[in-house]
Amino acid sequence: MAPIGEPSRRSHPRINGTGRSAKKNSRFSFTYAFKLEGDLLFLLVRLGERNALSLLQGSDTSSSTRTIVDKWVTSRARIKHQSSNNSTTTHRRARPAGSGMTLPHDVEAALVKWTNNLRRGGVPVSAAILHDQARELTVDGGISSEMFSASWQWRDPSRSDTAPRFERRHTR
User: Domains (ranges, CATH) in the chain?
Assistant: First the structure.
């Protein structure tokens, strides 16, 4: 068992170096309620309270933090609107309507069957063909074309659980 304060090791101790270095740059996302409070921090910074920025990102008082707060100030009306609603005040980003749309099971099954039949016949199915067919099937299924855009996020199965599952053709 390792002494208190030291990480436990599963293998032999390192001979050279101290391991992986800490990340220098990292991205943060903030809720709308926090961004609204960030406007107050912006006013403090402009009035000369430079330590107010340390409340945002620890001890980092770089210009990038000021840039973030400046962007919050320019979009203050949208932030106020989002933070006034209890359901969106904890959100970090607003998405337009239809960007999170999933296809009904029968429409997705028809699309997968159509694609797999083409691939079995030796026809390559490009992203543009898949996009057009998905849009046609959704309109036939009663979903407006504005609600479902068949974007690349929808087609990429590694990024989403809602992507259609197609057969993979191995060429090697």
Answer: 32-84 (no CATH), 98-172 (1.10.10)
Rounded to whole angstroms, the Cα distance separating 60 from 80 reads 26
pLDDT digits (tens, 9 = 90+) for 17-65: 777 777 776 667 778 888 887 666 665 665 555 555 555 554 445 566 6
CA dihedral (111, 114, 119, 122) positive or negative: negative
Summarised one tens digit per residue, pLDDT across range 60-84 is 455 666 677 778 778 888 888 888 8
Report the candidate in 84, 97, 112 with the shortest Cα–Cα distance to residue 143. 97
pTM higher than 0.70: no
Please state, in angstroms and rounded to a whole number, the distance separating the CA atoms of residues 160 and 155. Answer: 8
User: Which helix (DSSP H) or strand (DSSP E) does residue 102 occupy?
Assistant: none
- Cβ atoms of residues 79 and 35 within 8 Å: yes
Distance CA 166, CA 163 (A): 9
Beta carbons of 111 and 137 less than 8 angstroms apart: yes
